Structure formats: structure tokens, C-alpha cells
Amino acid sequence: MVNLLIMKLFDYIFYRVCDFYKRKKDSAAEVTSSLIVSLIQFFTILDFFLLVRIVWEYPIPENFNKYWFLPIIILIPIINWSKYVKSKKYREYRKIWKDENLKQRGKNGFLIVLYLVISLLIPILYGLIMQNIMGGKSFLG
């Protein structure tokens, strides 16, 4: 149930971003939209790990480095390209959401931007708090 709701959210984000770029006459609107959805999905995964880390201070392996995320960073856009661009999902989503009333469309657009901003702010705030305020100590003591 939750999985379907989240997938529908990303489908809607893809449609809205793609629709925005298509109105700007961008020839790569679908690819750009799938990459933006990939970015949002990556930050959502990162936010989940950070929120779990705040609640449960799990140990990070000694040999951990930033390149561990590289497979995820590569895999997510490939999956989204296959799902959205290759299968030409924009037309299907346009049939579903093209008649959305203007008030609901504005509200949903605001929520998408808010979701993107919050997704970007969580890792930034976590880093600032951990390094500058707490000096790398645990949140829970």
C-alpha cells in the first residue's frame, strides 16, 4: 500500500516536471524529468539513512567512503530511464492528470517543491549540526 503510494508520488512528480519542460519546448524533457526524479529518490534514500542514524547510532565501517553510494547513484537513473523514458510513460500520465483543476495543480506543485527542499535540507542540516554544533558526537548522548 505504502509502496504504491510512493510510486504514484514519483510518477506524478515525473509527469509534472516533464509537463513543465515540454511547455518550455525542451526536446529532452522526459530524460530531464527522469533524472530529476532520480535525484529526489536518491535524496529520499539518504534522508532515510540519516533519520535512522539519528534514532539508532549504528557504526559506520572503518573502510567506508563516499564511493559506496556510486552503484545507487548509477542504478537509480537507469531504472527510471527504463520505467519512464523507454516505455514512454508521459502520454499515459498525461491522460490521467491533464484535466487536474488549477487549484489542485498549484497545491500539488507547491508540495512537490516543498518535498524537494526538505529532502535537500535534511542532509545539509544533519552535517551542519553534527560537525559544527555537536562536534561529531551522538544526538542521543
Structure description:
The chain is mostly helical and 141 residues long. The chain has one domain (2-133). The protein contains five helices and no strands. Helix 1 (2-23) packs antiparallel against helix 2 (29-55) and helix 2 (29-55) crosses helix 3. The longest helix is centred in the last third of the chain and has 32 residues, at 102-133. The chain is elongated. The model has no long low-confidence stretch (mean pLDDT 86).
Describe what is shown at a glance.
This protein is an all-alpha fold and 141 residues long. The mean pLDDT is 86.
Low-confidence stretches: none
- Specify the biggest β-sheet: none
- Cα gyration radius (Å): 18 Å
Instruction: Categorize the overall geometry.
Output: elongated
